């Protein structure tokens, strides 16, 4: 049966197809990786755009870079369901936020949906609008409403309902409305630990849903780096990745990280879908 959020990938080697049968859960197949990025180019870019009247942050630039990366490297947007490999129909990024930074502040989850053709400014607008709406105490997200509906049931019914939802997902019977509301059915889960001045972590993947990539951006720190054969201290971003190794091979992941570095070194590339023209303009 077809899924509303993706299509089955059929043209794969037998060895690739058998891996999800061997490692049935994402928690079986999760790999961990760390990326260190010099923040100089990002800081200069944010300052440059501020002088031009744009209010951008690390959150905007990092999510824009990941959206562009997934658009360019579509195997990253695959997911495993019932030991089958699917290609996702769109690009989604889920993120947990607190309505206030007090200890007792309520937490909710937002999900940004993209086509992959948006530029940085369009992505920033989408992010700001959805977060502003979600932080309003008068507003409930689709996730809030879904969770409230489940939790309104008696205890034994809650457990039964969750099992039914998981089983329906495995059988490709989960309604589109539930998939759209679920933060666990997404291309990537992003946690912005920099906003609470906390170090990066390696977050586990969820066995429920379809998330195969978890990204945790920590606070900026000063680290020694080698530049022109000299050791210098630089302000850096540290990012922790947890990846479902079943969605693509190591070479594909490695080349994807190299492309990601290009976007962090030159955020101007994210201003247009036509990267080659942007690259020429930046050089000139």
UniProtKB/TrEMBL annotation:
It holds the Pfam family 2-oxoacid_dh. GO terms for molecular function: acyltransferase activity. Residues 215-270 form the 2-oxoacid dehydrogenase acyltransferase catalytic domain. It comes from the Bacteria. InterPro entries: 2-oxoacid_DH_actylTfrase (IPR001078), CAT-like_dom_sf (IPR023213). Transmembrane segments: none annotated. This is 2-oxo acid dehydrogenase subunit E2.
